[in-house]
């Protein structure tokens, strides 16, 4: 009887088929393994094999992955389409980023990139709106849209939170955003925050003549999230915000489905991503996380500040480029630059990532010496100037709030 062993998962002459999911891994084999052994073990454990030689016969090997290239510490693995369940991201990730991450056959392993084939990619919905939110919701023309997150992150009362929203919106920002750890706590209950913030949004829209919107954080267990999504639709919101990593992809998929019914966009916060993408040679890359977010239907996603902000970033510009590139007809995704931004950093940011983004700042708005309203004016002026290719210092001569922000923070990267 033929056995399946991990050598059977290695074929360096193999050409992946168009229907296969092709993944690139960086691999550091265990000390008693060479790269070919490790490559075979990765393909085996992530598809239908294990450490032992199996005495199984027949078609089960049709589900085997093939390690088909080894190059400079990297391996390429091709996964047959039949291995995957349609539209089930949890199942896909349990294959390609599952047991192999802890397998003793490798010292370190990182899933760097995936090439998503049409048969699998199109079983996912992708974003409902993507970058079109800039035009469709805000009529923003060529400029990036702007957002702010009230600080302190948590602890503001509902009234204080909504008031900050009003000041930010009337100062010129497009979006008020909840912070990742604000959901439905006693000091600021979800339902009250939603209604009060949207009431202030309406007021700000009347006063400014501009469209404004609110990214309310619906993150919870799936049942509560869906109830919250319904509430947002009922009260006239345009978006929900979801902490996509902490709540999990299956939950995101359900939210995407419900948002489709309501025509709501999804803002994806990536809190916790750094637990598996910060160490460069292990885990799952931010690039793959961005791909997964797009497939599951995030319309806008935090992708970092191209190293200008307070947090570590992985290839923001490259990931953003991927989010814009065609993926078998699925919509694109609007990247959100956030984390330690302030007006003085905006020209360099736009230089690095372009204008098809959302520029988001918390401390860089509310830490303005003259408060939130002035901070919002400064950020909007910086964004308008940078998008129009105008010098920010010249703009600061016209907008005193921007001059004050530049005086306070200069062009420093915060920590
Ligand atoms: O609260 C903030 C930013 O606040 P501030 O502007 O005060 O730093 C966001 O949670 C970060 O953007 C997350 O990081 P990332 O966007 O990299 O996921
Ligand atoms: Mg935050």
From TrEMBL:
Annotated residues for binding of Mg(2+): 177, 179-180
Cofactor(s) it depends on: Mg(2+)
Residues involved in substrate binding: 153, 270, 302, 338-340, 360-363
Enzyme class name: lyase
Residues the record marks as active site: 151, 269
Pfam families referenced in this protein's UniProt entry, alphabetically: RuBisCO_large, RuBisCO_large_N
Residue intervals of the Ribulose bisphosphate carboxylase large subunit ferrodoxin-like N-terminal domain: 8-118
Feature type site, description Transition state stabilizer: 310
Ribulose bisphosphate carboxylase large subunit C-terminal domain location: 135-409
The reaction(s) this protein catalyses: D-ribulose 1,5-bisphosphate + O2 = 2-phosphoglycolate + (2R)-3-phosphoglycerate + 2 H(+); 2 (2R)-3-phosphoglycerate + 2 H(+) = D-ribulose 1,5-bisphosphate + CO2 + H2O
Bilayer-crossing regions: none
Molecular function (Gene Ontology), one example: magnesium ion binding
GO BP terms in the entry: AMP catabolic process; carbon fixation
Cofactor note: Binds 1 Mg(2+) ion per subunit.
E.C. code: 4.1.1.39
Location of N6-carboxylysine modifications: 177
Keyword annotations from UniProtKB, A to Z: Carbon dioxide fixation, Lyase, Magnesium, Metal-binding, Oxidoreductase
Family: Belongs to the RuBisCO large chain family. Type III subfamily.
Function in brief: Catalyzes the addition of molecular CO(2) and H(2)O to ribulose 1,5-bisphosphate (RuBP), generating two molecules of 3-phosphoglycerate (3-PGA). Functions in an archaeal AMP degradation pathway, together with AMP phosphorylase and R15P isomerase.
Subunit-level organization: Homodimer or homodecamer. In contrast to form I RuBisCO, the form III RuBisCO is composed solely of large subunits.
Additional observations: Because the Archaea possessing a type III RuBisCO are all anaerobic, it is most likely that only the carboxylase activity of RuBisCO, and not the competitive oxygenase activity (by which RuBP reacts with O(2) to form one molecule of 3-phosphoglycerate and one molecule of 2-phosphoglycolate), is biologically relevant in these strains.
Protein name: Ribulose bisphosphate carboxylase
């Amino acid at each position: 009887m033929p056995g399946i062993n991990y050598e059977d998962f290695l074929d360096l002459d193999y050409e992946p088929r168009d229907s296969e999911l092709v993944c690139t891994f960086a691999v550091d084999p265990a000390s008693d393994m060479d790269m070919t052994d490790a490559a075979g073990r990765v393909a085996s454990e992530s598809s239908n094999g294990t450490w032992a030689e199996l005495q199984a016969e027949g078609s089960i090997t049709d589900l085997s992955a093939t390690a088909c290239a080894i190059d400079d510490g990297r391996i390429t693995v091709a996964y047959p389409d039949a291995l995957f369940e349609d539209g089930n991201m949890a199942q896909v990730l349990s294959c390609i980023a599952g047991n192999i991450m802890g397998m003793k056959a490798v010292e370190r392993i990182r899933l760097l990139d995936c090439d998503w084939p049409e048969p699998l990619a199109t079983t996912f919905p992708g974003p409902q709106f993507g970058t079109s939110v800039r035009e469709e919701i805000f009529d923003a023309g060529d400029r990036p849209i702007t957002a702010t997150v009230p600080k302190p992150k948590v602890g503001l009362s509902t009234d204080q939170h909504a008031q900050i929203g009003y000041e930010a919106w009337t100062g010129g920002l497009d979006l008020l955003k909840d912070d990742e750890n604000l959901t439905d706590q006693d000091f600021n209950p979800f339902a009250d925050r939603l209604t009060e913030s949207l009431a202030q949004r309406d007021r700000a829209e009347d006063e400014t003549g501009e469209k404004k919107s609110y990214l309310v954080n619906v993150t919870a267990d799936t049942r509560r999230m869906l109830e919250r999504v319904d509430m947002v639709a009922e009260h006239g919101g345009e978006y929900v915000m979801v902490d996509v990593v902490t709540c999990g992809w299956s939950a995101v998929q359900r939210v995407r489905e419900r948002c489709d019914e309501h025509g709501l966009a999804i803002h994806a916060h990536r809190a916790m991503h750094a637990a598996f993408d910060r160490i460069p040679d292990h885990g799952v890359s931010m690039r793959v996380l961005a791909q997964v977010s797009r497939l599951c239907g995030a319309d806008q996603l935090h992708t970092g500040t191209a190293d200008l902000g307070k947090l570590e970033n992985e290839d923001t510009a490259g990931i953003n480029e991927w989010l814009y590139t065609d993926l078998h007809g699925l919509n694109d995704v609007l990247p959100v630059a956030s984390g330690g931004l302030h007006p003085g950093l905006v020209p360099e940011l736009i230089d690095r990532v372009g204008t098809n983004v959302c520029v988001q700042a918390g401390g860089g708005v509310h830490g303005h010496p003259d408060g939130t309203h002035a901070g919002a004016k400064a950020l909007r002026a910086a964004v308008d100037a940078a998008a129009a290719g105008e010098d920010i210092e010249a703009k600061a001569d016209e907008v005193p709030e921007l001059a004050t922000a530049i005086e306070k923070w200069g062009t420093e990267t915060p920590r």
